[in-house]
Records
---
Amino acid sequence: MPGPDATGTVVLQQVRPYGEGDPVDVAVIDGTIAEIGSSLTVPEGAEIIDGAGAVLLPGLVDLHTHLREPGREDTETIRTGSRAAALGGYTAVFAMANTDPVADNSTITDNVWRVGRDVGLVDVHPVGAVTVGLAGEQLAEMGMMASGAAGVRLFSDDGKCVFDPLIMRRALEYATGLGVLIAQHAEEPRLTKGAVAHEGPNAARLGLAGWPRAAEESIVVRDALLARDAGARVHICHASTEGTVELLRWAKDQGIAITAEVTPHHLFLNDERLATYDGVNRVNPPLRETRDNLALRQALADGVIDCVGTDHAPHAAQEKCCEFALAKPGMLGLETALPIIVETMVVPGLLDWRGVARVMSERPAEIVGLTDQGRPIAVGEPANLTIVDPDRSWVVHGPDLASLSDNTPYESMTMPATVVATLLRGVVTARDGRASA
Ligand code: NCD
């Protein structure tokens, strides 16, 4: 298990597990939930966190984060990304493989894991590349990465699609043998050449080359069929279209072992934002239309989409403050994910706090087989926890975020909820807007 072992006692006072019932106190001793009750006696020397009636959730788990180390430490590092994660309520993140060099071998994946453990704010699980150099041609040494110190369990060429159906088929077969999971960035590259925006009336009016929904949907259905025939599991990264929802529903109804994530920005934002040509709104897959937002929200509520993945994608100012078509795709997500889920899912009544725990912690942990994350809030369980004040709002200001980059699409927006504190195995990793290391 990565990260330091906790020693000592923390008492969370007046918290409401899953936002239910009267406030209780939760005592955490040596990394484990030791007692839950009303007005617990505080042992001498214990750290006290006054929840003041706030919601207690299992620590959040993100299957899709870009931490940019190695290679682009000017935009994010494992340390700064871990701080952003802890402040966002996360206790485990999966760091994508599109680093420089690519994480396509165990030297890199083991190093990412070790640095994450030394930082100690969040469990950093490296994602291994499916193909060498993300080139889509030759399978990477998945077995070596899986059996290394990092114990890689999730593989993805994210940023690029494993577009060759034969390579994808082999990857699924190998992954099944190794007991690991492939996460696909579903984008048929022949349909998105030069594309920078969702193909639709807005892109046409603005003169931006369009990325059709079919580019995503054709790969989703292809991979569902390949997984079916290989008896494999497959995970779809950042589902973004109404059609993808229908295909996922169909595939799950057939008993195909397919899971999917949706990003907070695809639930909340649409392509009307592109009118300013501000590069901050460029992202892959692109922001789509209101009907896609609504279908994705309903699918997340119904379980057709399993979980939320942030696709936290930091970029330098000079890569964003430029002509729209030249801006790098991607937006920050770790520190704003939970409030955006509150805004899009909790406020409209699509999810209650149990549902938030399911889509942001329990399901993602299950999908990748983490046994110590996404656990029930109960005595004897590991104290991976986050406290959220659902009524304390805050205003996003890029430079104030812990991430090294500022490319948040929510600049100056008011977020409806605040992470009060995060605990990783009983160690307080973030509190009142400050990360612990
Ligand atoms: C990602 C990144 O920046 O690494 N960007 C993004 O827009 N989601 C990679 C990717 O998925 O294209």
---
Amino acid sequence: MKIGVLALQGAFVEHEKILNALGAEAVQVRLPTDLEGLDGLIIPGGESTTIGQLAATFGLIEPLRAFARSKPTWGTCAGMIFLAKDIGSDRQPLLGLMDVTVNRNAFGRQIDSFETDLDVPKLGDAPFHAVFIRAPLVTATGEGVETLASLPDGRIVAVEQGHLLATAFHPELTSDHRFHAYFLAQIRAGQKSSAGSA
Ligand code: GLN
């Protein structure tokens, strides 16, 4: 399986290491042609304004949009912001594909970075240790968006909409690889069902 990791800025190397550890081939994506032949794509954390501006500069916005419209794509933190339809501002380029409203830097200055154990039923019973760094929050979800994890007070931090996945935290910064394994399993399952219907 070949998985692209958008490598414009941010924590892309960490994603690559985990993908390789799980037996997938990780490919750095910097140009539209890098998307060819990929089974899925991860948009890493970093600074969503920078990632958006660099994507625009390299002519990547439309190719990324076209890719993520049909292929499994997972955004972590800044990647979640970049995937969202609505961030309450039109001052930065977005792919605008996931039917969610996202609030950037939602935790303010006092606790802009923190770690906590999350209950993520799709990953099994053991809690998932989540690292939040100047993280966004999902403040509204549209039809067809499933919540995968929330903070104890109900604020949403992981969502899925068909083949699109988004997490407000950084699963690539811990040694728990279950979120990456889940993404790869979803890709495999999708490939099987589309092969079955062909
Ligand atoms: N605060 C960043 C943004 O708005 C996201 C932080 C992150 O990806 N860790 O893009």
